[in-house]
Design goal:
ATP binding, transmembrane, nine-stranded antiparallel sheet, Polyamine-transporting ATPase 13A3
Length: about 1200
């Protein structure tokens, strides 16, 4: 392709593609049409399978802007080709965000201006009548790509985010909504707001399925067999193919219907659209376009689009997207322009950065909260397939192909079979010509060899093992939406685990609190609901700083918030809509202590205690929550603004990660021993949360608070103390991790929790062994002209004296000794936070792969960082599993080779595997079944390859004497032997425990190829032995020697009818010998330990093999006339039958001896050869480990610093690493 005319679409995204333009060429179309007719339609099929060839054969290259056909190629490792027809649309303008009043089509810089006076219908009519603008676009994977003259490329219009609008512009320019004309104009570009999963008709699916290359080959085989009068076998294959196609169609149709129903359930709802000036109208959700403003009803709604809240608060269940069933509070988008001080805080709006203010499509708004006279409004940001739900559905509809060595090798193996077929084809062609047979006979018989060598039952046989494994997984509560990945699970050698809810119990238990006063810690206290603490700021913070809400009378929200609030014993009261309107209160939620916790009132004799005064006493302790800044995993904190009833001034309370909270407090309020106390708790594995308080200025009114930036609130706070919570390990966690460790499967912890807590949990559960060292990599970004750097320090081992300098020296010595002596890879572990990980990715690319090689604890990781970590591990050739509860792990679960979600919610649709029991015992179960399925695939492939070759050899030998196998002989071999054996040999269940070695990942490996080749030679040798021996016997050409009631034939001639040519002694001999050979290789290849249960435990396989063996011996020694006529066999003398048994026994002994010998000594021989050749390991991580084992400067020494220095050239992205002690 000419580089200058090659465009890149979706640059930097997962679906990045190269695009080139083509124009249809008439003379090429005519030539292709003629070629298709001449080849009987085969050329059309070839072009259907190969989009690149199709476009190049029918079109000529042109500029992308003038293209009629777009040819695209993905830039990932798969390099897939796609073609799309470029269409032309007539629209009133070129830019969907333009103001319709403007006659020009020039895009506005940052926004569209809204002018209600432009709503006159004649304006849009006039523009449509006078100025039709041609817009070129094409559709691929449910996404429209429009031509943009400014960037001279096709681009996707996603929604309002295309405008790079600021938070303040969302409020100032988009809060009034669109008029009807603007809405219709935008619909030209964005289409209907629907995620349209079209269920293809059965006819379409049938055509698509039948045009599969494999079924075309089968069709060719059937036509060929019918030409040669092999009707029965042809019909059997047709029936098998029909069943296979019907099953496939049923499964595909069912998946489409399920997906369609899942999407369609709430895809069309009635919504209230805001038109400005407090005018609203009812409309269907399909009419919505980006820029519309919708009113969220108080009783909730299933969101039909992605929208940003600009007014009010919503309680949302996002389980469909995140897997987290806990309701989330969404607040309105801050408007920095309304806050005088916060003008600088105006940021570009993004759905990910501002997800706490964004309502996503498919999520369920349970209830809304709003102020008197105000509607809860949201601006539509994205519609249709551009929404979060739409992207999820697209990833299911158009998944990336599974890149696994087994599948690549399978095609290579088929090519080898085709090569063998070609050799035998040439041989048979020569033999037929030498025998002077008719031309038709020569062509048919020679082509028949190819249909024998490539077995028609191969795909069905290959999937059998996976289907059985899927069924066994279902029994232990593991469900899969991607069965092909079961094989990949057999290769996993690293598993990442989320901590909370995965390795540890989901809920947290209150362990105690540690308050501070005058910059000093009090002694730790067990309970927070003590009468003496009820009026303290500490307890007030615990009672108010949360996102809890009442749903149908039940407290609901984050489990941590719930535990914290319950520990106070306070009560949460939500004001109803009527109360809010009646009293014009500004608070929406109140918290108050129960009466029994209140101090007794002091009543003087002259006081008359009335009911109203009692109310006042209780109310004086009521606190109203005025504004909530939701918890952000990026900021690691949340805060609230509250007002105690009866007080004018407001208070701010803050809770979050201790390090973050301390940094936002006045220095004098943070105890000097804060770091030591925190370290002491986190080392013991406790989850620690810090609290802070600030008395707000009296000038801050309610309305100012509603628009203030959180940074203005979260500063100059007073440190209140620590809440200490216990997160217990699940009982099964240590056992499972020990099983994985024994199986040489690395385990990594990826969590959002504190690093020292994570290290402690990693030690407790056995992820880090007691004698192993933990090196903390603390990376700092460039600052004040200084380069980025990493400070290395070693984490103390628990239970050791805290004499730090001596401790570090001791570690270093042990480290060096251990490194040179035993288990160098298990001697040290790296731990780092999400912030350090981000710095290392940006500034220390050279070090990244070295760090992940021994990285065991990754703490404070954001969801996208979890995905980046999985990608980095995969880049060094690890097969990565990811196990999480689905809350923040969706991206990583999708990206990993095997993602296992412990959540049964709809989010598990993003994960290939879902466990119904929230326990990590599913991980070893899945790996065991994966290994069993993988070994089954190898066994089946080897067996099918041998079956093809054995049959091919039999036919080739028979061709040499002008004979062939009979129709019913083929039928008996293929149905009674092959299919029966293949489908039962796949039934071996997984071995009961994980072993330290993994099965091979591909078919093209020395042991596997050696096994197949030796068995081919053995079978060939014994077939040729039988073939040659029978022709040297005295009775071979003398029919008088026969003494049977069954038919016998004269072998003296090769001419005569087809029956005469088939029914002869050589045919009968090769039929019996080859039939036993199929059974021999099935038994030899059906491996048991260490990945599958032994074959003798697979009773259907044992029974099938015994039945077929007994039947063959029976018909060999008891020649029944009816059976012999049906199978077209002849009766041979008893002595030869005994000789055939000896040949079969000899074949069995040699086959078993060679295979078992290779199993025992083959691995040792190969490892000895590899040692002598000093073979470089294929896997990148093994290569790195080898390099690091001889690196004297690795691992980094304690108290040392590594600095990143830019290269000599400004454009050079590499870095020089300098260690500075």
């Amino acid at each position: 392709m000419e580089k200058e005319d090659l465009k890149i679409v979706n640059r930097g995204l997962e679906d990045e593609m190269e695009l080139s333009g083509y124009r249809l060429c008439r003379w090429k179309l005519v030539l292709v049409g003629l070629g298709g007719l001449c080849t009987g339609g085969f050329l059309f099929l070839l072009l259907y399978w190969m989009p690149e060839w199709c476009v190049k054969a029918t079109c000529t290259r042109t500029a992308v802007r003038d293209a009629e056909v777009a040819l695209l190629r993905s830039t990932d490792e798969f390099k897939r080709w796609f073609r799309a027809r470029v269409r032309i649309m007539l629209a009133p303008g070129k830019n969907p965000y333009d103001n319709l009043a403007s006659q020009t089509a020039s895009p506005q810089a940052n926004d569209h201006a809204h002018n209600p006076s432009d709503s006159a219908p004649e304006k849009i009519t006039r523009i449509q009548g006078d100025q039709h603008v041609q817009i070129r676009y094409f559709t691929l994977h449910s996404t429209k790509y429009f031509w943009n003259d400014t960037i001279h490329n096709f681009e996707v219009l996603k929604g309002l985010e295309d405008l790079s609008m600021t938070c303040s512009s969302v409020h100032s320019k988009h809060s009034l909504g669109l008029n009807k004309n603007q809405q219709e104009y935008r619909r030209f570009f964005f289409g209907l707001n629907e995620i349209d999963v079209k269920v293809p008709s059965l006819f379409k699916l049938l055509i698509k399925e039948v045009l599969n290359p494999f079924y075309i080959f089968q069709l060719f085989s059937v036509i060929l067999w019918c030409t040669d009068e092999y009707y029965y076998y042809a019909m059997a294959i047709v029936v098998m193919s029909f069943i296979s196609i019907a099953t496939s169609l049923y499964t595909i149709k069912k998946q489409y219907v399920m997906l369609h129903d899942m999407v369609a359930t709430h895809s069309t709802v009635r919504v209230t659209v805001y038109r400005g000036d407090n005018e609203t109208e009812e409309a269907l959700s399909t009419d919505l376009v980006p820029g519309d403003v919708i009113v969220i009803p108080s009783n909730g709604i299933i969101m039909p689009c992605d929208a940003v809240l600009i007014c009010g608060t919503c309680i949302v269940n996002e389980s469909m997207l995140t897997g987290e069933s806990v309701p989330v509070t969404k607040t309105d988008l801050p408007n920095p322009q309304q806050d005088k001080k916060g003008g600088d805080g105006d940021t570009i709006y993004g759905t990910e950065e501002h997800k706490r203010h964004t309502l996503f499509c498919g999520t369920n708004v349970i209830q809304t909260r709003y102020y008197t006279g105000e509607m809860v409004k949201a601006v539509v940001v994205r519609t249709g397939f551009s929404t979060a739900k739409g992207q999820l559905i697209r990833s299911i509809l158009y998944p990336k192909p599974t890149d696994f060595k087994l599948y690549r090798d399978a095609y290579l193996f088929l090519l080898c079979l085709v090569a063998v077929a070609s050799i035998v084809f040439v041989y048979s062609l020569v033999m037929k010509i030498l025998n002077q047979e008719p031309v038709k006979e020569i062509i048919v018989k020679s082509l028949d060899i190819i249909t024998i060598t490539v077995p028609p039952a191969l795909p069905a046989a290959m999937t059998a093992g996976i289907v059985y494994a899927q069924r066994r997984l279902k029994k232990v509560g593991i469900f899969s939406i991607s069965p092909q990945r079961i094989n990949i699970c057999g290769q996993l050698n690293l598993v990442c685990f989320d901590k909370t809810g995965t390795l540890t119990e989901d809920g947290l238990d209150m362990w105690g609190i540690q308050r501070t006063e005058d910059g000093r810690f009090h002694h730790s206290e067990e309970k927070a609901d003590d009468k003496s603490l009820v009026t303290t700021k500490f307890v007030s913070c615990m009672a108010t700083c949360h996102s809890l809400t009442k749903i149908e009378g039940q407290l609901s929200g984050d489990p941590l918030d719930l535990k914290m609030f319950e520990a106070t014993g306070w009560i949460l009261v939500e004001a109803t809509e009527e109360e809010t309107a009646q009293h014009d209160r500004i608070e929406l939620t109140y918290v108050k202590p129960p009466n029994q916790l209140l101090p007794p009132p002091v009543i003087s004799p002259e006081q008359d205690m009335e009911l109203s005064e009692l109310y006042e006493l209780s109310a004086s302790y009521m606190i109203g929550i005025v504004r909530q800044f939701s918890f952000s995993s990026a900021l690691q904190r949340m805060s609230v603004v509250v007002r105690q009833i009866g007080e004018r001034r407001m208070d701010a309370y803050l809770k979050g990660a201790p390090e973050v909270v301390a940094s936002l407090c006045k220095k004098e309020s943070v105890p000097e021993d804060f770091a030591e106390v925190l370290e002491d708790y986190t080392k013991q594995g406790f989850r620690v949360i810090a609290l802070a308080h600030r008395r707000l200025e009296s000038k801050l009114t309610f309305h100012k608070v509603q628009n203030i930036n959180r940074d203005q609130i979260e500063k100059n706070m007073d440190f209140l103390g620590l809440i200490v919570m216990q997160n217990k390990l699940k009982t099964e966690t240590p056992g499972v991790l020990e099983d994985l460790r024994r199986a040489n499967i690395r385990t990594v912890m990826v969590t959002g929790d504190n690093m020292l807590t994570a290290i402690s949990v990693a030690r407790d559960c056995g992820m880090i062994q007691p004698q192993d060292r933990v090196i903390i990599a603390d990376a700092l970004p460039p600052k004040d002209g200084q380069a980025a750097k990493i400070n290395w320090h070693y984490a103390d081992k628990p239970g050791k004296p805290s004499n730090k300098p001596t401790k570090l020296e001791e570690m270093e010595i042990i480290m060096d000794d251990g490194h040179s002596e035993t288990r160098p890879q298990e001697q040290y572990h790296f731990a780092m936070s999400g912030k350090s990980f981000a710095v290392i990715i940006e500034h220390f690319q050279d070090l990244l792969q070295k760090l992940v090689l021994h990285g065991t604890v990754f703490a404070r990781m954001a969801p996208d960082q979890k995905t980046q970590l999985v990608e980095t591990l995969e880049s060094v050739d690890y097969f990565v599993g990811m196990c999480g509860d689905g809350a923040n792990d969706c991206g990583a679960l999708k990206r990993a080779h095997a993602g296992i979600s412990l959540s049964e919610l709809e989010a598990s649709v993003a994960s290939p595997f879902t466990s119904t029991t929230p326990s990590i015992t599913c991980v070893p179960n899945l790996i065991r079944e994966g290994r069993a399925a993988l070994i089954t695939s190898f066994c089946v492939f080897k067996f099918m390859a041998l079956y093809s070759i054995i049959q091919c050899l039999s036919v080739a030998l028979l061709y040499s004497i002008g004979s062939n196998l009979g129709d019913f002989q083929f039928l008996f071999i293929d149905i009674a032997i092959i299919l029966l054996i293949v489908f039962t040999m796949s039934l071996n269940s997984a071995w009961k425990e994980l072993v330290a070695r993994r099965p091979p990942s591909g078919l093209v490996s020395v042991p596997l190829l050696f096994s197949v080749l030796t068995q081919i030679l053995i079978c060939l040798g014994f077939q040729i032995m039988g073939f040659l021996l029978i022709q040297k016997l005295d009775w071979y050409s003398k029919p008088d020697f026969y003494n049977c009631s069954a038919p016998h034939m004269d072998n003296s001639t090769n001419s005569g009818t087809k029956e005469e040519r088939i029914m002869n002694d050589v045919n009968t001999t090769l039929f019996f010998v080859s039939s036993f050979q199929y059974l021999i290789v099935a038994v030899v290849f059906s491996k048991g330990k260490p990945f599958r249960q032994p074959s003798y435990k697979n009773w259907p396989f044992v029974l099938s093999t015994l039945i077929v063996t007994i039947f063959l011996f029976f018909i060999m020694f008891v020649p029944i006339s009816g059976i012999y006529q049906f199978l077209e066999l002849v009766c041979v003398p008893l002595s030869w039958r005994v000789a055939m048994v000896l040949i079969v026994l000899g074949n069995t002994l040699v086959s078993v001896f060679i295979e078992e010998g290779m199993e025992l000594y083959g691995t040792k021989c190969l490892s000895w050869l590899c040692c002598r050749r000093r073979k470089v390991p294929k896997a990148r991580y093994m290569h790195l480990a080898q390099e690091l084992s001889v690196d004297p400067d690795w691992p980094p020494k304690p108290k040392s610093t590594t600095e990143a220095k830019p290269g000599p050239h400004p454009d050079d992205c590499s870095y020089h690493i300098e260690a500075v002690s």
